[in-house]
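Support request from a user on the community tier.

User writes: "When I paste my structure tokens into the form, the page sometimes reloads and wipes my input. The last time it worked, I copied everything first. Here is what I submitted, just in case something in the input itself triggers the reload:"
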């Protein structure tokens, strides 16, 4: 119920009175506006009569001084305007109990303005023909303003415009005749009448608002009483001083499945206990009720189970002790209600809040609560509890390639396998996404914890059959044990998360227990992340350039731009350490754009036949801004697009492959060349090569080293890659060539281009530029 239901008059401001604004309750104020318009309807005929009589008086007053056709035309127009306004007012019958908009109220100003315009003719036009009639005309206008103040009082805007307009023209007439005192009196009269209109209108609205509040309150109370009488969900009960039921009403008896006659005089505890009264097997809540009655203490919202016709119901009862006029205790009186449905709903909501809808396993909230209880019990008995975090390997690839429905069914199969592994000592739950957790109440036996972790990895790594798809995923596990790795749930979860991160960082499919060094590593990552966020703007990043030469002629064909970070605080930081941080924190976007822009600007200083290659992270390629950044870099540097080569790895295609392919196609449309880096070291697929027009395949250094040592597999892979590239019209670049023997072998195997320390280490920009500008007949390692 709103604050107006206190039945105080509703305050009305001038802005609300004029229809400029409304109160907090638009519906309420809409009804008040309807009251204003309807009140104007009741006095519409009076206003019409006043205009008619005034018009006739003016016509008679000026009949000998003004051409008769002037007067006739003015009188007819006045009657037409007044008649139209009267008809408009009389058509508002529907507003008696209805609603009106702000615009409807504002439109009444036009009515007053129209009438004021008509009444401006007598003082401004007619009176100039007969100056002697000024006093009589002034009297007619004064009476007319008084009549309007009465008839138009509810319509404040109409009254203001009409009275104000008439008073202004009358005062102007007097001023022109130099009757200053009379002009001032006319203005004061108009102001007085306007003030009276405002006061009457405000009183009308306050009275109507009070009536509506009173009516609404009456309806609300009647509705509540009616609901109470009809619902049958609440009842009254009463006992005497001996705790026996008395004055039993029908509703209370029906709630107990009995009659008032059967319950009258029965001990209230016996009535509520039902069949358990004979056995004495009472619910704890009933014993609490008995204690309250015995001590004669008031109680409120006491929940207790009641069996009615063989069905258990839940009641909530409230009661106070009764005293007679002498202050003597005479029993209890209270109310009760059946809350069975509400309790069932609350239980359902509680379950929904604590169980995962997809898998049916406990969710993060339930897991946290269970872990807190396990830690409390472990501390109480001097034992250990453990928390195990599980992350599915390669699940995202399944989700992205086959769709979320398949992914959801796969999560269901995973949860079924996990549920088969646990005993009464463990609780398994889903934290969200593809993360699960295990709470071990007793983790005193460390070997048991480790065995469970390995069983989870082994079980979850077995193939799954889902909708005619055979799916292969794995699991990584991190474990933390109390009290060594944490005494609180929050600390233990953080420790297990760090251990899981180590497992994922190791390639997945393994188990790691928390070690203090993990926290040190995490802190180092955090510090490096903070420094990396400012490294670009501080100018701490730079590019080195490693030469790439033609395998046959050993002529320079280009450079690979390699990102380096020299921090004043931490020194030279390996790309293997800061690049993953940049990818995880989304800093790789701005850093990658800077690399492309800087490499293109440097290549602009080289001869036109020297290319520059830039490594592209998968996170960059999935950014919608990256292609535009490449195009802008080419435009700003003015180098030919074919001189820029972007190197991507197969990991680009492992998620959202469609988006990656679209980005690569747009890059190719720019004329930029693409190179497939580290081919054969990851999730190799010939499909990548058939769907994307790569210009070069790069052979990883590990195969070059293996081939130089005579490893058959490495030799076979290099021959296969070269043959594949030749058949597809692509070049091959062998990375990591460091010796003459490796160079001779790579040439013999047919590689197109060579990169490695034998021809040059990554060079500072000045040295690389000097080499690019020098004769490139041959480059030898120093």
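"...and here is what came back when it finally went through:"
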């Amino acid at each position: 119920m709103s604050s107006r239901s206190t039945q105080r008059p509703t305050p009305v401001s001038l802005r609300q009175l004029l229809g400029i604004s409304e109160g907090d309750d638009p519906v309420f104020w809409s009804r008040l506006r309807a009251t204003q318009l309807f009140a104007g309807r009741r006095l519409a005929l009076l206003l019409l009569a006043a205009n008619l009589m005034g018009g006739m008086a003016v016509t008679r007053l000026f009949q000998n001084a003004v051409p008769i056709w002037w007067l006739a035309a003015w009188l007819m127009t006045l009657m037409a305007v007044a008649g139209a306004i009267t008809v408009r007012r009389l058509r508002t019958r529907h507003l008696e109990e209805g609603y009106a908009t702000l615009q409807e109220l504002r439109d009444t100003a036009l009515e007053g303005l129209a009438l004021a315009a008509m009444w401006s003719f007598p003082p401004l036009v007619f009176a100039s023909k007969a100056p002697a009639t000024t006093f009589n005309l002034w009297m007619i206008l004064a009476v007319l303003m008084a009549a309007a103040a009465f008839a138009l009082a509810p319509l404040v805007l109409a009254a203001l415009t009409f009275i104000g307009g008439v008073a202004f023209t009358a005062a102007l007439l007097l001023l022109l005749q130099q009757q200053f005192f009379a002009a001032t009196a006319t203005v004061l009269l108009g102001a007085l009448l306007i003030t009276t209109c405002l006061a009457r209108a405000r009183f009308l609205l306050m009275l109507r608002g009070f009536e509506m509040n009173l009516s609404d309150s009456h309806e609300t109370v009647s509705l509540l009483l009616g609901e109470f009488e009809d619902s049958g969900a609440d009842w009254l009960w009463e006992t005497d001083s001996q705790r026996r039921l008395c004055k039993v009403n029908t509703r209370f008896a029906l709630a107990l499945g009995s009659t008032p006659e059967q319950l009258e005089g029965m001990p209230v505890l016996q009535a509520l206990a039902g069949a358990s009264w004979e056995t004495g097997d009472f619910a704890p809540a009933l014993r609490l009720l008995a204690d309250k009655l015995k001590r004669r203490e008031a109680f409120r919202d006491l929940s207790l189970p009641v069996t009615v016709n063989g069905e258990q119901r839940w009641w909530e009862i409230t009661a106070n002790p009764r005293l007679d006029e002498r202050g003597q205790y005479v029993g209890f009186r209270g109310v009760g209600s059946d809350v069975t449905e509400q309790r069932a709903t609350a239980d359902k909501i509680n379950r929904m809040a604590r169980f995962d809808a997809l898998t049916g396993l406990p969710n993060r909230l339930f897991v946290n609560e269970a872990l807190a209880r396990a830690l409390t019990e472990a501390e109480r008995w001097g034992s250990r509890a453990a928390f195990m975090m599980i992350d599915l390997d390669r699940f995202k690839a399944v989700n992205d390639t086959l769709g979320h429905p398949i992914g959801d069914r796969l999560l269901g199969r995973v949860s079924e396998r996990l549920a088969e592994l646990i005993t009464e000592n463990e609780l398994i739950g889903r934290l969200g996404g593809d993360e699960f957790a295990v709470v071990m109440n007793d983790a005193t036996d460390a070997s048991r914890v480790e065995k469970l972790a390995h069983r989870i990895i082994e079980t979850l790594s077995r193939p799954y059959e889902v909708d005619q798809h055979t799916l292969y995923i794995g699991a990584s596990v991190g474990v933390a044990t109390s009290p060594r790795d944490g005494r609180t749930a929050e600390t233990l979860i953080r420790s297990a998360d760090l251990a899981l991160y180590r497992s994922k960082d190791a390639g997945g499919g393994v188990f790691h227990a928390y070690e203090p060094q993990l926290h040190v590593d995490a802190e180092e990552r955090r510090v490096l992340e903070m420094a990396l966020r400012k490294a670009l703007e501080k100018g701490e990043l730079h590019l080195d350039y490693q030469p790439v030469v033609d395998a046959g002629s050993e002529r320079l064909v280009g450079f690979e731009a390699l990102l380096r970070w020299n921090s004043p605080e931490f020194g030279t930081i390996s790309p293997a350490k800061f690049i993953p941080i940049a990818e995880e924190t989304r800093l790789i976007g701005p850093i990658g754009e800077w690399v492309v822009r800087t490499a293109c600007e440097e290549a602009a200083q080289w001869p036109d036949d020297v290319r520059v290659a830039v490594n592209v992270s998968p996170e960059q390629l999935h950014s919608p801004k990256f292609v535009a950044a490449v195009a802008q870099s080419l435009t700003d540097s003015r180098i030919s697009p074919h001189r820029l080569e972007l190197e991507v790895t197969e990991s680009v295609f492992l998620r959202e492959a469609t988006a990656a392919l679209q980005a690569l196609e747009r890059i190719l449309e720019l004329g930029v060349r693409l190179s497939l880096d580290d081919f054969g070291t990851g999730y190799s697929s010939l499909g990548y090569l058939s769907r994307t027009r790569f210009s070069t395949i790069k052979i990883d250094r590990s195969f070059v080293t293996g081939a130089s040592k005579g490893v058959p597999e490495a030799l076979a892979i290099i021959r296969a890659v070269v043959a594949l590239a030749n058949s597809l019209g692509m070049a091959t670049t062998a990375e990591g060539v460091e010796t003459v023997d490796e160079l001779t072998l790579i040439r013999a195997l047919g590689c197109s281009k060579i990169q490695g320390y034998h021809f040059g280490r990554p060079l500072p920009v000045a040295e690389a530029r000097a080499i690019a500008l020098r004769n490139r007949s041959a480059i030898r390692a120093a």
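Agent notes: The reload is a front-end session timeout and is unrelated to the input. The longest strand covers residues 311-323. The chain has a mean pLDDT of 82. Escalated to web team.
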